[in-house]
Design goal:
Blueprint lengths: L26 H5 L16 H16 L7 E4 L1 H9 L6 E5 L6 H12 L3 E5 L1 H7 L8 E5 L7 H10 L5 E6 L4 H13 L4 E5 L8 H7 L8 E4 L2 H10 L3 E5 L5 E2 L9 E6 L7 H5 L3 E4 L11 H17 L1
Parallel strand pairs: 2-3, 5-6, 5-10, 6-7, 8-10, 8-11, 9-11
Antiparallel strand pairs: 1-4, 2-4
Helix pairs in contact: 3-4, 3-8, 7-8, 7-11
Length: 313
């Protein structure tokens, strides 16, 4: 039989009509044996159902992924500004052979004075960290911000001799606004800031820089449910005051001699419906010109300054 002259296996007995030939060695018999039950569609590598199952698993893994990862600040100006603001950094990375200037020198000096680890690394290591490659030979590593619990912020505010002054943020998504509000809270005698856990700006390096170090002195708390926390604070005796351009009264008419929570909404969306319903009063800032509204952080600063002025009087 053509092609079977070297194959091992059963040989046809002598004396048959076709003569002795080499057999298949049982290959054809094994080929007829069953291979078991067909696996489900989602377990077959190239089946559409298997691809859909793999995609769903990846999405589920992404939903449960930790969000407060270590943050890397890139660039000479951002790094030196963060160090000047007292950001709690853990490591300063400097590329080997990086051109020296006063910003790099100051960053290394401040990091050394504060006991921050200074590591010289190859430039391609920083290239992998920076997607756009704009690291300028320097990077600063920051740990996740240590958020306070809302109950702890309220308890700390009530221990002060002055009435509690807290600020809650609703729909604030820009970390620069968050940092500026934290800075105003520190400047005008506030006790803390409350942000929702979802759909809100968090204390990133940008917020740290904008706060000019105030984030190290003013606690920022995260609420799983902002409305529920505001209700709890209202039950504890605090007046919930919303800040909106269409307020019931102006800040000139508002009396802030008791414990107050100022709720600041975003410049575009303002206060959400549920938050607005939970407010005891809605306060607006009178405008002298055609400007319709102020930036959220500017508006918060104006209200906090007025409350501080009333309490000094």
């Amino acid at each position: 039989m053509a092609g079977n002259s070297q194959r091992r296996g059963a040989v046809r007995k002598a004396g048959t009509k076709k003569g002795p030939t080499v057999g298949s060695g049982g290959v054809r018999r094994r080929g007829l044996e069953g291979k078991g039950a067909t696996p489900p569609a989602h377990q077959r590598a190239n089946h559409p159902a298997a691809k859909r199952a793999a995609k769903a698993a990846r999405q589920a893994q992404g939903r449960h992924k930790k969000t407060d990862d270590v943050e890397i600040v890139l660039g000479r100006n951002p790094v030196v500004e963060c160090l000047r603001a007292g950001v709690p950094a853990t490591a300063l990375y400097v590329a080997l052979g990086a051109d020296n200037d006063e910003r790099l020198t100051e960053s290394v000096q401040m990091a050394a004075d504060r006991g921050i680890s200074i590591l010289e690394v190859p430039r391609h290591d920083l290239d992998r960290i920076a997607a756009n490659g704009m690291h300028q030979g320097i990077a600063l590593q920051m740990p996740p911000y240590d958020y306070a619990h809302p109950d702890d912020v309220l308890a700390s505010a009530r221990r002060d001799a002055m009435p509690a002054l807290l600020v809650a943020l609703d729909n604030i998504s820009d970390p620069r606004n968050l940092g500026a509000i934290v800075r105003s809270v520190a400047a005008f005698g506030g006790h803390g800031v409350l942000i929702p856990q979802r759909r809100s700006a968090s204390v990133t390096a940008v917020a740290w820089r904008t706060s000019a170090g105030a984030a190290a002195r003013i606690p920022v708390a995260r609420a799983t449910n902002l409305n529920r926390t505001l209700k709890q604070w209202a039950d504890a005796g605090l007046q919930i005051v919303g800040l909106d351009a269409d307020g019931d009264i102006t800040i000139d008419e508002f009396e802030a001699d008791g414990p107050v929570v100022v709720v600041v909404g975003s410049e575009g969306k303002g206060l959400s419906r549920l938050v607005r319903e939970n407010c005891d009063a809605i306060v607006s800032i009178p405008m002298a010109g055609p400007t319709e509204s102020l930036n959220a952080s500017v508006a918060a600063g104006v209200v906090l300054a007025e409350i501080a002025r009333q309490r000094r009087g």
